[in-house]
Each structure stands twice: as C-alpha cells, then as structure tokens.
Specification:
Strand content: 25-35%
Number of helices: 2
Helix content: 40-55%
Radius of gyration: 12 Å
Number of domains: 1
C-alpha cells in the first residue's frame, strides 16, 4: 500500500510503508511525510483486525 503526496511544490513522491532513500534525502520533510503515511496504514490495519 502506498500514497502519492506532494512533498515539494510541483513534485509528487510515491510514499510506501517501507520508505525510501529518496525520502531520507529530503530530510525532515520526507521523514514527516513517511511517518504520516506509515501511521495511517498501521491504523487502517488495526481497524481491520478488530
């Protein structure tokens, strides 16, 4: 499962739960976006298990 987000103006990046070196290279902005997607996926999975 992944999500496409606009991290920088005009640049869409595909973000997966596993992350990528590209997100790491973006620094804090990339890490925040990855954490947001990771947390969303984790919450969705926990709702499915209930």
């Amino acid at each position: 499962m992944s999500e496409s987000k606009e991290i920088l103006p005009g640049k869409k990046v595909e973000i997966t739960k596993d992350g990528s070196l590209g997100l790491l290279a973006l620094g804090d902005v990339g890490l925040r976006a990855w954490r947001e997607v990771r947390n969303k996926i984790t919450k969705e999975k926990s709702y499915e298990e209930e």
